Amino acid sequence: MSLNRRSFLWGTSLLALAELIGGCDTPTNFRVELLNGSVPVQLVNRFRRQQPQRPGLSFVPKFNLEDLYQELQAEATSNPADLVMIGDYWLSAAIREELIEPLNPEDLSQWQQLPENWQNLVRRNPNGELSNSPEGQIWGAPYRWGTTAIAYRVDRFEKLGWTPTDWQDLWRSECQGRISLLDQAREVIGLTLKKLGYSYNTPDLDLVPDLKAELEQLHQNVRLYDSNNYLKPLILGDTWLAVGWSGDISPQVQRQHNIAIAIPKSGTALWSDVWVKPIATSATNNPLVQAWIDFCWQPEIATQMSLLTGATSPIVWGMSRADLPKDLRENPQLLPDTDILERSEFLLPLTVASMQQYQRLWQQIRSVVRS
């Protein structure tokens, strides 16, 4: 799902440089490659202090998830990290390409605290397909999640007398030429399917009446498709509404640029970042792999991670809202209403034939000349 999803808008309190925790002369005992801004440096230091040997920790940030996947491919032959963060969208490919090895849930003390839908997300067969059969193994540790959301200019919509609340608002005539959408077939076709009452993971698009006509109508309202810089025209006022990933739409951007966020009422797409173990590290069996994952899943740490990184730990999903800090339980960006979450879904693996169908339709829509 999240080919170019990034967290470049978070501040200097987050881990922004490749650094060795523990001093320049400390050897590296544990190396992690991750998305820039996805782990607060203060919690990395806390993790180190909890380890008896005070290990040297190297957390190496990358600009986007595509870079991380390419690093995972490059490290399949040499110098692998102990853990790599990838988006759940990449998990099937990583399994098929034999880039990662499964984790043993019995080695993870917090595994049972992980909500069932996240356990199911990472339980796959050797072809990368979802599997609840005995051949299904655990291929990753979900770390954080977010939604596909609508960001909009408060000033522009105040003049119109309404604000976006659901996908159907993208089709309103007042938005013609004022929308930026992700350059992603699954996302755009998916939100259109959701508007029509179908699943994001609909396998046969030919069975959805009027889908192409709906996409063509939406296409007329779009100013640009971009998965990297979709917030820039919104900040500048060139667009009034942008569909993007919740982890990118930081509070800083909202406060400084008069931008609000809406999680569509009819449900939306969910994304998750997961820790995976490169297959070339299997001989080392570094105990810090399990220790770090368990650390991330501790309720107190999971709550802090959620508040500090702009994306929510899956552990929070399973906690009572009454037990959560006010800043978290009352933040609809980090924790949407339960009924919205129940109508939302991960972008799950589709067959090759289905993916080809999505791509054909996407190309057809993109070739339509906007009036």
From TrEMBL:
One GO BP annotation is: polyamine transport
Record GO cellular component, one term:
periplasmic space
Q: Where in the cell is it found?
A: Periplasm
InterPro entries in the cross-refs: Sperm_putr-bd
Q: Which SUPFAM superfamilies does the annotation name?
A: Periplasmic binding protein-like II
Q: What is this protein called?
A: Extracellular solute-binding protein family 1
Gene3D superfamilies, A to Z:
Periplasmic binding protein-like II
Major place of residence: periplasm
**Pfam families in UniProt:** SBP_bac_6 (PF13343)
Question: CDD domains of this UniProt entry?
Answer: PBP2_PotD_PotF_like_1
- Native organism is Limnospira maxima CS-328
Establish whether keyword Signal is in the entry. Answer: yes
Keyword terms, alphabetized: Periplasm, Signal, Transport
